[in-house]
Design goal:
There is one protein chain. The protein has 211 residues and is of the alpha+beta class. 29% of the residues lie in helices and 24% in strands. The protein folds into two domains: 133 residues, Glutaredoxin; 44 residues, Antioxidant, Horf6, Chain A, domain 2, CATH 3.30.1020.10. The protein is built from seven helices and eleven strands. It is elongated and about 60 Å long. 28% of the residues are buried.
Length: 211
């Protein structure tokens, strides 16, 4: 099994979901994507996660991000679980959940870690750019729920820096100052970033977040 790394093209697949069959790359279109796995249906932490993602639907939409979940259970199980999520989390799950009973997608994305569990997926997160390349991979143990504020924060950073010569510092959030790429000469900063800049060290220059 190939190990997926940042910059790799996200493997394509066709799968049944709670919203019908999808071809992953075709379904993504020109959107960004978040693919995240769950150990199984009807599990407590996953129920809170899927409810949270549903509540963040507008945040993902305004960033041109499509979200798809995965569990190793079947579509019928997913549909019953979605009803529970909607009820207990006071929301409406409006994104597809992949039915991966044969572990095809789980294996393709190395979501099953045998030393943690032989059959259930760990909590993998893949952020995929509009170019279909993997921009971020996070792997949580099954016992730890994900922080979707952090996932939104990372998407903001990735989208900001994708086409600009910028990086984002520790604990950065949308609206904060950014770090100018070392590849940019200090004398060229005013033209690229007219909001101004600060030279803290020759290798550490900051500028306000561009509009």
């Amino acid at each position: 099994m190939a190990v997926l790394r940042l910059g790799d093209v996200a493997p394509d697949f066709t799968a049944q979901t709670s919203q019908g069959e999808i071809n992953f790359h075709e379904w993504l279109g020109d959107s960004w994507g978040v693919l995240f796995s769950h150990p199984a249906d009807y599990t407590p932490v996953c129920t809170t996660e899927l409810g949270t993602v549903a509540k963040y639907s507008d945040e993902f939409t305004k960033r041109n991000v499509k979200v798809v979940a995965l569990s190793v259970d079947g579509v019928d199980s997913h549909m019953g679980w979605i009803a529970d999520i909607n009820e207990t989390q006071d929301t409406e799950v409006n994104f597809p959940i992949i039915a991966d009973e044969d572990r095809k997608v789980s294996d393709l994305y190395d979501m099953i870690h045998p030393n943690a569990d032989n059959t259930l997926t760990v909590r993998s997160v893949f952020i995929i750019g509009s170019d279909k390349k993997i921009k971020l991979i996070i792997v949580y143990p099954a016992s730890t729920g994900r922080n979707f504020d952090e996932i939104i924060r990372v998407i903001d950073s990735l989208q900001l820096t994708a086409y600009r010569k910028l990086a984002t510092p520790a604990n950065w959030k949308h609206g904060d100052d950014c770090v100018v790429s070392p590849a940019v000469k200090t004398e060229d900063i005013p033209e690229l970033f007219p909001k101004g800049h600060k030279v803290i060290k020759p290798y550490l220059r900051t500028t306000p977040m561009p509009d």
